[in-house]
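Form 7-S
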Amino acid sequence: MSWISLALMSSSQEAEALSDALFELGALSVSIEDAHAGTDKEQPLFNEPGEAVDSLWHDSRVLALLGEDSDVEALLAQLQAHFDWPKLPPYEAIEVAEQDWVRLTQSQFDPIRISDRLWITPTWHEAPQDGSINLWLDPGLAFGTGSHPTTRLCLEWLDRHLPVGSSVLDYGCGSGILALAARKLGAAHVVGVDIDPQAIQASHDNASQNQVSIDFYLPDASPNGQYDVVVANILTNPLRTLAPLLAGHVRSGGQLVLSGILVEQVALVQEAYAPWFALQLADQREGWACLSGVKQG
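Output:
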């Protein structure tokens, strides 16, 4: 089976009405994009999350996916009559061959090497090497799969420094990737905390997929214990606000690992944690920093 992709140029005033008309005429899907996308004439549109965009691009392109048996000439004639166009706007109709879209998408993602032994591996791949430690996570998860520099910095710290048999708290766990890594790298007990219930569910799912036992909690339900290692990959302002709480979760002589910090904000975080830690720059990458330190006293 194949499809027909029909692209029509449109003004911003007419693009949405054209989209609706294409749906009424049997289009399987319709989208609107900037006709100059990818050029120096590209027009960015800005809006707050959850708010509608006030206007579309001045020059828009309306893309419709049609069934392989669609009569494109008849459809265009109906559009011309409906909108009373003196002539048809510029358009292009091309055949789209059937593809295994799942397999095509999967082929774009390979395992991510964190170290000689630690990998982030999509579930459809084989382990990249014998004896490797694999975090089985699939691209596209809402809470991240380790490609961001801040996550990699934390993973690399855990790979190099995590004591076997230690207890670990991953605060702001997201997908649970750091908690998973800690457990697979030899931590005896791991807890993950996040403010988002969907993150907790995603973390539970990922732990199950990786066949490891980890406890995940919302903040109000989390235990008040202390840990050998506390890791938090969040952002600078939340990390500063959480300083007393996170410090309280680190046992005396335990270690704190913080990331999500821009390099120019390192001093602000060090100052916030100074009553408990002499945080040092553990590593940095692409403008992001990872700090670590041992709890004093």
